[in-house]
Amino acid sequence: MHIYGSPLSPFVARVILACEHKGLAFTISMPEGGLKTPEYLALNPFGKIPTVKDGANIVYESNVIVAYLDNKYPKKKKVIPASPAASGKANLIAKVCDLYVQEPALDLFRQVVGRAPKDKTAADKAKADMEVALDILNSYISPGPCATGKSFTVADCYAIPALLFATSVGPLFGLKDPLKGRPNVKKYYAAIKKHTAAKAHIAETQKIMKDRLGSL
Ligand SMILES: N[C@@H](CCC(=O)N[C@@H](CS)C(=O)NCC(=O)O)C(=O)O
Fold it and tell me: Which of 8, 43, 87, 168 reaches 20 to 30 Å from 158, CA-CA?
């Protein structure tokens, strides 16, 4: 299986983490020549990462890829739990991390790296939105070892990159420790860094992020 993308992309990270948990071998690289070449657009017409090439199957959109991996490799460990209650909980944490933690964190990141104009009003709103989401997440995320408790799920695939971005950009906008006062999220993030499916990915992306922000 080949993943088109880069590990720092939070969307790509979801797919990497699902593969790591399932024990699926993969290679990863950015599309040659960029995201908008005719060759890459033929695989993913939106010209975004991630895209997965798995034999004859081409799959894009991170949530679709994660579900595809579980369906294609049912004998491997699941990321989406079987029971309605457990999958509901895992999918809810994933969605909250996606929409309400990662989105504002990415808005801040884009301002920092110059992909969006510096705008204090927009930054203050993104920061406030992210703080509200972290409070809500704190009310139902497990303190570990995984986001829903014992098992690694889709919730972890989404929470890990969302928290990497939140904790990396927060301090640049006056939030010294975005997890302070959110003990369940804080304990969870410390615990998941030691998980076998996640520790190498987290160490790698933390380093890339540090280099990226440090070089600005
Ligand atoms: N909804 C997509 C979002 C993917 C996405 O926005 N990826 C970014 C990288 S972090 C991208 O490819 N941006 C390039 C572009 O939009 O041109 C998913 O979940 O896979």
Answer: 43
